[in-house]
Amino acid sequence: MFSLRPSRIAHLIPSTRRGLARAAPRSVQSFIPVIDFTKFREATGEHERKLVADKIVSAFKESGFIYLTGHGIPSNTIQNTFAKSADFFHMSSQIKDRLAWEDPRSNRGYVKVGRERVTQSLDPTEIATLRAKAPDFKESMEIGRDWDSDWKNQWPQESDAPQFKQTMLNFYQTCHELHVHVMRAIALGLNLEESLFDAKIDKQCHNLRLLSYPPISTALLQGEGQARAGAHSDYGTLTLLFQDSVGGLEVKNPHSSTFIPATPIPETIVVNVGDLLARWSNDVLRSTLHRVVAPPAEKISDTESMTPARQSIAFFCNPNFDAEVACLPNCGKDVKYPPINAGEYIVGRLAVTYT
């Protein structure tokens, strides 16, 4: 359905790369503001919604990242999803490997440690070299819309992972609904019709990614270019990131080019702009480089230390795969990018990321 040749997408990545929870240091909160979404969700009039929308768009113009509080997803829902995710990764490799990720057009299934190497490169040879030299020390489970007629999710047997499937399907829908509201806020903050994006995201072509970063010897993380997940930007419209308390996420400040630790803040979701939304907005909104590094290690002997395990859940929000992404009104007269098919772009990026 889509061409996977990297040469076709090399020019498509937005050029702007500017630029999460205990209370974050003041310097972090000034760069990545905490925004209460309650008034947008519950407001009866447009004026209140517009005030929140303007804050979100302002932050996305500056850093591309926000902490979202008042998002409406109950804490017990998030905690239960984390618990079911942990149960999945605790299963044997033999069971998980039967669910292995196979195809970038599907982007579904289990990805074992070292198989993915996130990077800004689009050169398969360069990525293969990076993967061999400094693989990402994480494993993941990728889940898409479950009613897709062409691509099926890879579910474990109910006896192996009780309630896993239903928990993830419910969470997928919950995240999609939040995505719709945040995209409405973005449209309003750009002084566009609030429902502008509705018909371009209603097919739910998203990716729910469960992530597990196993404990690892610090010696293995000291090589050149090594990280739990290398510096990269995300591909779609928005990412909703749910963190545990361990930390490790860092966001690149576009003004100083330094990476700022994005300290987990309880009861918040980290939301950031992806490449397609940056492109849609003609780089008015920033898709910002970020990475996952090792948190402080725990000494286990006189010569050896271990970094602790980390869990996170990322919901990668995408436009409909048949949607055309072209410069929005109110986003500049000099258009930087030609129109692009959303599905072709995302599948092409995935095709060079995995082995």
From TrEMBL:
The keyword Metal-binding applies. The keyword Cell inner membrane does not apply. Keywords: Iron, Metal-binding, Oxidoreductase. Residues 204-319 form the Fe2OG dioxygenase domain. It comes from the Eukaryota. InterPro entries: DIOX_N (IPR026992), IPNS-like_FE2OG_OXY (IPR044861), IPNS-like_sf (IPR027443), Iron_ascorbate_oxido_reductase (IPR050231), Oxoglu/Fe-dep_dioxygenase_dom (IPR005123). Coiled coil: none annotated. This is Fe2OG dioxygenase domain-containing protein. It comes from Sphagnurus paluster.
